[in-house]
Amino acid sequence: MELHNIPFGTTDWSTIPTEEKSAQAGRALWRTQHFGTVRVRMVEYTPGYVSDHWCVKGHILLCLQGELHTELEDGRTFTLRPGMSYQVADNAEPHRSTAPLGATLFVVD
After folding, report:
1. Buried b / exposed e across 81-100, counting CB within 10 Å, b at 16+?
2. What is the pLDDT of residues 72-103, one digit of tens each?
3. What is the distance between the alpha carbons of residues 49 and 43, in angstroms, rounded to a whole number?
4. Is the pTM of this model over 0.85?
5. What is the edge-to-edge ordering of all strands in the sheet holding 49-50?
């Protein structure tokens, strides 16, 4: 990720419209901003959220609230709690997540 030609700014995430994304179960609510080629999101997964796909996009993800369970295609699993993060490169390791208790995440990709 390279950050170029992005002036200093602040984001009040409460003013960004929420967009609902597909899920196998629960709801995925995204608030999204774009800064050049960088996408920044505040994501809320409702309790019981289950992803409906394997993701191959790279992310840097910080768990702010709740608990996120992430499974890699090779079978490894990881649990993030508030203050924990993960990072993965584009097309590196397919992953999918669930949030049995719900989760709020800050994601940069």
Report:
1. eeeeeeebeeeeeebbbbbe
2. 999 999 999 999 999 999 999 999 999 999 99
3. 12
4. yes
5. 49-50, 95-99, 68-72, 77-80
